[in-house]
Amino acid sequence: MNIFITGCTSGIGKETVLALAKENHQFFLANRSAEKTSELIKTMQSINPQVQAHAIIVELSSLLSVKEAALEFLHRQQPLDILINNAGVYGQKGLTQDGYEMAFGTNFLAHFFLTHLLQPALSRANNPRIINVASDAHWSAQFTSWDQLRRKTKSLTAFDEYGFSKLANIWHTNEITTQVQYQGIQAYSLHPGVVKTGIWRHIPKPLNYFGAMPFLKTPQEGAKTTLFCLKTNDQFANGQYFSDCRPAKTSALAQNQQLQKELWNYSLQAIKSI
Q: Is residue 266 annotated as a catalytic residue, yes or no?
């Protein structure tokens, strides 16, 4: 299989590819750091000398960079079996290079654009899947207006904005199932658990409640639901949300199909001129 994954030089993304490295897949590793991606490929090759892994350098806070990363894959004219939209930021404040709130622009809009661009390659595969790593943080998300997405991060820990970006990941997954061009493509979203990874590093220590919790999942444990979504042969509903390797509930807001469709149209406008 051809597997494209974002944000895999650390945390659950890294554990996902290391768990898959022993299998004979071809990997496209989309990360910010060329050096860390090179180190990851060496580690994968130590697990399986036959592994095929390619570095694709991308800055998710730049939609132009996302476009260039997608085109790098598309130029190979290969089908894409699995797209794992894994990368995420939490605690980074401000705006992306395109003027969107940092968590929304990086965690959601970049992946929306990437998925949109890679859709033709996914459609050429036999049983393609899109896996969006979301979070139960979406339960805390609130929506006031689409204007909020053009404002700098307001909340002290950036948790409110992070929660909304993860809500957007779920809306994205759900809306994919209604779109004609995505017919035949399975899409899942998931909560990996509260995992001890570098995602907490931007939160000031006195406010870092989650990062200081003593019973956080390890990255290996956090990767299990991603791997389950990738491998399962069970007939789950398209658009299903998972937690702990089984179907899970989402918030009432996550089930708002009107806002879900509005986000889709908003996002299409956002990427239109890139």
A: no
Q: Is the confidence at residue 187, as pLDDT, over 90? A: yes
Residue 204, token pair as written in the block: 């000031």
Using alpha carbons, list the distances in angstroms from residue 33 to 9, 22, 45, 238, 256.
8, 23, 18, 33, 37
* Domain assignments of the chain as residue spans, ordered by start: 2-271
Residue 26 pairs in a beta bridge with 2, 52
Provide CATH code, domain 2-271: 3.40.50.720
pTM of the entire predicted model: 0.92
Q: Which of 90, 162, 182, 241 is catalytic?
A: 162
pLDDT score of 156: 67
HEC string for 57-92: ECCCCCHHHHHHHHHHHHCCCCCCCEEEECCCCCCC
pLDDT, tens digit, for every residue of 36-71? 999 999 999 999 999 999 999 999 999 999 999 999
Q: SS3 sequence, the chain?
A: CEEEEECCCCHHHHHHHHHHCCCCCEEEEEECCHHHHHHHHHHHHHHCCCCEEEEEECCCCCHHHHHHHHHHHHCCCCCCCEEEECCCCCCCCCECCCCCEHHHHHHHHHHHHHHHHHHHHHHCCCCCEEEEECCHHHHHCCCCCHHHHHCCCCCCCCHHHHHHHHHHHHHHHHHHCCCHHHCCCEEEEEECCCECCHHHHHCCHHHCCCCCCCCCECHHHHCHHHHHHHHCCCCCCCCCEEECCEECCCCCHHHCHHHHHHHHHHHHHHHCCC
Average pLDDT over residues 10-19: 96
